[in-house]
Amino acid sequence: MHNAKQLRLFIALWPDEATRDALAHIQVSLQGRKTLRGNFHLTLAFLGQQPSHILPLLEEILTRVQQAPLSLMLNRIGYFSRQRVTWAGADKPPISLIGMQKGLMQDLTSNGIDINAAEKFQPHVTLARDAPTPEIAVFAPIVWCADRIALLESVTHTDGAAYRLITSHRLTNIV
C-alpha cells in the first residue's frame, strides 16, 4: 500500500461575515492568543490525521447531512481550564444541533473513519488560547443563522494554525 499524504481534518459549522464580526468584537476584551477572525468555527467532528484519499468520501458524507439552517444564540463565555481556552457558546444549544452532530458522527464511524466518538460534544467557538480565566462572562447575544457545514484542514504554522477550507455545503433539510 502506498504512503498516502496525511491531513489534519475537521468538520465544522462555518460562520457568515456578520457572525465573525460580532465574535471579533467580543474577543477584543479577552486575553490570550486570539483566534484569527477567519478561523472562527464550531467543530462538529474532529477527525485528526487522515489519509488524503478519503476526501471524496468525507465530501459525500457532508452532502448527506439533512438539516435545516440552525439558529444559534451565542450568549455566554466559557473556559476550558485544562486547555486554557476561552470560547463563546450557547446556554441552551438547539436539540437539532446535538442531533445533527450525533448523526454526523454515526455516519463517519459507519464509513470506517477513525475518530474519537467518545468525547462529549460541547458546541463552542474558540476565541482565545493560552488564556487566563476570562473576566467577562456576559455579552450582547449573537444570533447566528448557521447555514454552512464545512470540511477543513488544519495547517500548523509557527504562529499557530490556519484553516484551509476544502469544501462546504449549505444546510438544507430538503432530500
Give the key terms:
175 residues; 21% helix; 4-stranded antiparallel sheet; Cyclic Phosphodiesterase, Chain: A; 38% strand; alpha+beta; globular; 10 strands; 3 helices
Explained architecture:
This protein has a single domain (9-155), classed as Cyclic phosphodiesterase (Cyclic Phosphodiesterase, Chain: A, Alpha-Beta Complex). With 175 residues, the chain is of the alpha+beta class. The longest helix has 16 residues, at 95-110. It is built from three helices and ten strands, in the order βαββαβββαββββ. The termini are far apart. It has helices spanning 17-27, 55-63, 95-110, and strands at 6-13, 33-34, 42-51, 70-74, 76-80, 85-89, 125-129, 142-146, 148-157, 160-170. The strands form three sheets. The chain has a four-stranded antiparallel sheet with strand order 3-1-9-10. Strands 2-7-6-5 form a four-stranded antiparallel sheet.
Please list the strands of the largest sheet in the order they lie side by side. 3-1-9-10
Number of helices: 3
> Class, according to the CATH hierarchy?
Alpha Beta
Provide the β-strand percentage band.
35-45%
- Major sheet size, sense and barrel closure: 4 strands, antiparallel
Offer a quick outline of the entry:
Helices cover 21% and strands 38% of the residues.
Could you outline the blueprint of secondary structure elements for this entry?
Layout: E1 6-13, H1 17-27, E2 33-34, E3 42-51, H2 55-63, E4 70-74, E5 76-80, E6 85-89, H3 95-110, E7 125-129, E8 142-146, E9 148-157, E10 160-170
Antiparallel strand pairs: 1-3, 1-9, 2-7, 4-8, 5-6, 6-7, 9-10
